[in-house]
Amino acid sequence: MREHCIGLMSGTSLDGVDGVLMAFEADRAQPLVAAHAPMPPELRAAFLALNQSGPDELHRGQVAAHQLVHLYAGVVHDLLTRSGLSRRDVRAIGAHGQTVRHAPPGPQQTTPYTLQLNQPALLAELTGIAVVADFRSRDLAAGGQGAPLVPAFHREVFGRAGTSVAVANIGGVANLTALPADGRVLGLDTGPGNALMDEWCQRHTGQWYDDAGRWADSGQVHRGLLKSLLDEPYFQARGRKSTGRDLFNTAWLEQHLAQHPPLPAADVQATLLELTAHSLVMGMEGLDWGPTPPETLLVCGGGARNTVLMQRLAQHLPGLRVSRTDAVGWPVDQVEAAAFAWLAHRCLQGLPGNEPQVTGAAGPRVLGAVYPA
Predict the structure, then answer these.
(1) pLDDT digits (tens, 9 = 90+) for 62-87
(2) Shared-domain flag, residues 158 and 195
(3) Alpha carbon distance 31, 298 (integer Å)
(4) Is 139 in the same domain as 172?
C-alpha cells in the first residue's frame, strides 16, 4: 500500500528549512517533490544565541520554536501545493526540530542529553497532519549518542549488495556513513562541515556562504593553524561519536586563531575547508571496512555544492570515485529531509529507526513521539 510522509529538516548550518514529500510502497522510498524556505536572519541569530547559555533562555527558546514551526508549516503547504495532494493524503510529518544543545554520553558527560527546539503539537494543529518528532531521545535513553541517525536511511537508499559504499552528509556538521559489502552499517560525526566556513565567510565578506568555495580557493592553507585545529581531542577519539556547535563554534575557532599571528581572512577560510576535508578522510580511514574497501564516496548536503571541497576530497582519496548523490537519483539537498520522512514512516509502523552499531545504543529502538492530527 502506497503511503506519503513529509520530512522536514533545519540543520546546523541554519540556512533554512528543507522539506521533501516521500512516497513509500513495499520496500521502495521515492521522493516526489521538494521545497525550501530560507531561515529569516533574526531567527537564525536567535538559534545561534541559544547554542550558548544566556538570559531568559527558556522564553527565547520557546519563541524561536514557535517561529520555526510556522516556517515548517509554510514548507508543508508548498509541498502539498506542488504535489497536488491534500493533507488527508499524507500520513505524517517527520519534524526533527532545531538542535541547540547536544551532549551525548562520554567521559566528560555523565548526564547525557540532547535538545531540539520544536512545537510538534502546534505543527499538527497548523497542518492537520500527524507529526512525529523527538527522534534522538529514545536512542540516547538506550545509551546511544542519539546521532547520527541518517546512516539507517542511507543503507536503505544507497546500500548495494556485495559493494562497499561511503556516504558523506556535509551540513553544518559533517557525518559519514560506511556501508561495507558484508551488510554492516557504521557511521559517525566527523566534525565541522559548513558551519565554521559559513560564519567566517559572513563575517568577512557579508555573504551567507562561500559560493563553490571560490573564496577559500583564493587563500592558502595555513599548516600551523590546521595542525592546531586537528589537535582537538574529538578528532583523535575512536569509536562512536557525535558533535555539534557545542564544540565546533566561533569561540573554539578564535581560541586557535589566538595561537597564531594574524592571518589573511581568505587563508583562514582555506584552512577551514581543509579541516572539513581532512577530518572526513580521517573518519573514512578510522572505520572497519572489512576485506572490501569502498570504491565510491557519495556526498550530499550543502557541502556537495562546494566545488573546491569536493576536489579536495577527491585529492585526499585518489582510489575512490567521489560524486554527489545526484548521480544516483537523490538531489543533495533532499537526502537529510527525506531521512526524517523515512524515520517517521518507521515510527508509525512500529519499526526501529536507529543503528546501534552507529550510535552505541543497547539495541534497535523505535524512534519518535507521535502527535496526532
Answers:
(1) 999 999 999 999 999 999 999 999 99
(2) yes
(3) 18
(4) no
